[in-house]
Write a structure and sequence with these properties.
With 558 residues, the protein is of the alpha+beta class. It is built from 10 helices and 31 strands. A hairpin with a 2-residue loop joins strand 9 and strand 10 (185-186).
Length: 558
Amino acid sequence: MPSSVLKNKALAVVSRESERAVSVAWARCWLAASILLFAAGAALGHPISLTEATVDVQRDCVDVSVEVLVEDLVLYGPVAASGEGVYPAVELREAAQRHSKFVLDGLRLLNADGGKLAGQLVAVDHSKITDDGVVEADVKQVSVTYSLKFPVDEPLSFLTVSQRFGGEKAILPAMMDCQVRQTGVVLDLPQPLMIGQTLTTGFDWSKPPTPPKNWRELQELRRERLKQQLGIASYSGLYSFLYITPGEVRHEILIPLLTLEEWLPIERADHNVLTVDEQQRLTNAIGKFFAALPPVVINGGEVSAVTSRVSFFGLDIRDFALNAEPRPVSMAQGRVGIILTYACDDVPQTVKARWETFSQYAPFLKSVVYEFDEAPTEHFFRPDSPEFQWTRSESIEVARRTVSPVKVEGAVTNRNAGDVAGRLIAGIYDAFGLQGEEETYDALATSVDGPFLRTLYLQIRRSLLMAEQGGSKSRVLSVTPVSTRMLGEVTATGFDVQHRWRIVGSVEHWGHIHTRENEFDATLSIQQVDGAWKLKDVRFTSQKRVRFETRLRGQTEQ
């Protein structure tokens, strides 16, 4: 979008008139795109009903101003024009009063738990309807404003807005242009909401917002909000993340439950809530649905999807960092996270992926692509261009890990015992960075002796699993020795030490990097085997977490 348009949108925070201009322009652009996508070639004399809503969230209530065009009063009233093509003022004002129930019934506000807020009519302002009435040519220009109030017992942490003006069989498909404020301060640009779409906003009452002074400050506030929300800018948006890694291609999708319902039925007892048991049944249906999608082609070979994870999320953004306990979720506010994995035996050189699942509320799929450790890029899947093709660039280097024996070189002393222990421990984690269990076993054999190999393999593998991320194996970033203490005397064949080390590992999901640092303490029995030092036994004595954090790729670690 041209920067001039963006600047004009940003200036919406300065005055009500500019807000209205931006809102209408945004709605018309959205409408034009919708018409092209869904009704190309149709002769639509009047395609949609437009409503504007300003939702101002206070500590003790939500004040809502809804602006409705006279055209809606004419249609839903109904009101007939005179022979001169004029709609009488008295009839329009009476229709405006009756229409207040229509507005209250059609506007839906939910709290963080999915509970519906009860609203009441405060006032109807039909002062723009003059005593002369409204001529037919002006029904799209003259409006009536409804002031509504929704009391709350305590400040809202989240608010979800949706509309069902006229229901599924409305005379005209309705769109509400909605802008959310906190104590009068604009939080973002107006968002268009069709029936079935939602807009969820979070509120921080410990640091209430202040009005942005200019375009630059607005951009900075939006960047900070995006950082706090871990890159998930919209609670009701469809997100796609495509990872290309040395061992697999992974497609991760965050789908609002209402969008998912456009693709497959979601059976539930309560229309508004999905229980834990219903989530489990839906998980099976999701696996079958995505298993039927076109396979991904890696290095020329087709690989079918494996649904490796299905998670249900509420509004708390921390759910992406922690493996939250299963709980009922609101249909209007819930999301499901789906991870599809496509394993490959070799480093991907070419990848072809296809997406053909589109709907009214998902006319395209915007995917963020992560190529190894490169900066993310974007790709759009569209009905007329549903394929993604990737070829590995020569500039993208993939480090191949190797594990070398720790050779016996001279006598062991208190000074060099720590170096031997540290190199053996590092070799173990390097082995887990290789592809495949067989290759990992072979590499471990250079550092671990005999029957203890499988025992240690299972111990280390368990330590690398991140429970917070559904048991995903973390990628080891660093292994750092902390201390080493000799235990007893060095014999002709080996020695024992008390060794402490720290390991930093990360898992990347949903566009976020989850980093964990743990400290281990263990007694190591080290012996000479065929001219090299090897671990004969490892007895862990303690383990503790040092830190855990979640950030976006490109953000500096704290």
